[in-house]
Amino acid sequence: GYRGGGGRAPAAPMSWKRKAADDKDALPALSHRAELLTALRDHGVAVVSGDTGCGKSTQVPQFLLDASPANRIVVTQPRRLAARALAERVASERGSTLGRTVGYAVSRDKATTLGTTRLTFMTVGLLLQLLIFKRDEVEAAFTHIVVDEAHERDVDLDLLLLLLKRRMKAQANKLRAARASAAAAADTAAEPPAA
């Protein structure tokens, strides 16, 4: 399902169920592209839940990437291997070289090109460090933050969600945020820690 946020009127829920196909064009996420983009534009925050394999991790970032050439997206992952693998997958789907339009950044390893990379997969811990120590640079570098696997709650993720919530409340900035989680765990991912 989907829930709008940011203190604005919530949008209608959406449910993404996996269809029996491995083809990218058959992923359930594709039928919700316009709804998600509208929700982020109107509410600033979206919560997306869906079954494993529905396209949350690979398609939602591409929706944002394709929506505007000005969009610069960071997608968090709880593990380094997942960040790199998803960057490789999305770059491949787009017919792009890893590190150009699509890249990744994890501790002690990255594949990005300054001024060219518009979609970066990053670990939660690294984005948290950047928000704490280089907040203004992060806000200038990215238009959208997608917190993927939001049901895998830990201290770093809770701190990241809290910082994002405070930043978005403190200013009417242009930063947009989406949280994605498995359908079975959507309730634990829906609400960030209290500010």
TrEMBL record:
Listed SMART domains: DEXDc (SM00487)
> Pfam families, from UniProt?
DEAD
Region feature Disordered, mapped onto this chain: 1-20
**Domain of life assignment:** Eukaryota
The question of whether Zinc is a record keyword is answered with no
For molecular function, the Gene Ontology terms on record are:
ATP binding; helicase activity; hydrolase activity; RNA binding
Alphabetical UniProt keywords: ATP-binding, Helicase, Hydrolase, Nucleotide-binding
What are the residue boundaries of the Helicase ATP-binding domain, all occurrences included?
A: 37-162
Specify the protein name. Helicase ATP-binding domain-containing protein
Q: Which organism is it from?
A: Emiliania huxleyi (Coccolithophore)
